[in-house]
Amino acid sequence: MFTLTLMRHAKSDWQYDLPDIDRPLNKRGRRDALAMGKHLRQINALPDRLLVSPAQRTRETAELLLQSTEQKPEIIVDNELYLASRETLLELAEAYAIPDQRLMLLAHNPGMDDAVSFLPNEAPPLSSSGKLMTTCAVALFEYNATSDLHRPNRCRLTALIRPEDID
C-alpha cells in the first residue's frame, strides 16, 4: 500500500510588494499550518517523505506542519513543484514514491485542485464556499501500487481535510 498526500500551502500574506515566490504566510496561515500538523499527527498521517515547492509560503507551511513532531520526514525542495500542473505533480509523485511509505507533495493551486479532481473515481467534496483545495487543505489517497499514480480511478480518497474541519 502506498499513501500519497497532496497539500496546498497555508494562507499567504499579500500586504508586501514581493515577487510571488517570496510571499510569506500570514497570521491565519501560520495558525492553520500548526493546527494541520497537529491533526495529521493525531490521525497518524504525517509523511515519510515531504516534497516541497521552493516558494516561501510552502517552505514555511512545511516547517510549521512538522514543528512539534519528533519524527521528521525526509524533506526535498523541488523547483518543479512551483506552480506545477497536475501532470508535473503526478510525474514528481511517481519519481519520488517509495512503496509502503507516505509521500506528501506540498504545492499550489490550480495544480492541486486539478490533481485532487482527477485521481479518485468519485468527485471529492467541495468546501462550504464551493472550493476544493482551500489553503492548507490536505487530500489523502491510498494506492495499491506506485505504478498507478498517473492513472485516474486507481486510488481511494481516504480523507480531504480543510482547516475549518479541524478548528
Annotation, overall tally of beta strands: 6
Number of helices: 5
Alpha-beta content class: alpha/beta
CATH class: Alpha Beta
Question: What sort of overall outline do the alpha carbons produce when their principal axes are compared?
Answer: globular
What do we call the CATH topology?
Rossmann fold
Terminus-to-terminus distance:
30 Å
Major sheet description: 6 strands, mixed
Radius of gyration: 15 Å
- Average pLDDT: 94
CATH hierarchy: architecture = 3-Layer(aba) Sandwich
Task: Give a summary of the structure in a few sentences.
With 167 residues, this protein is of the alpha/beta class. It has helices at residues 27-42, 56-65, 86-96, 111-118, 163-166; strands at residues 2-8, 49-52, 74-77, 102-107, 138-143, 155-161. The mean pLDDT is 94.
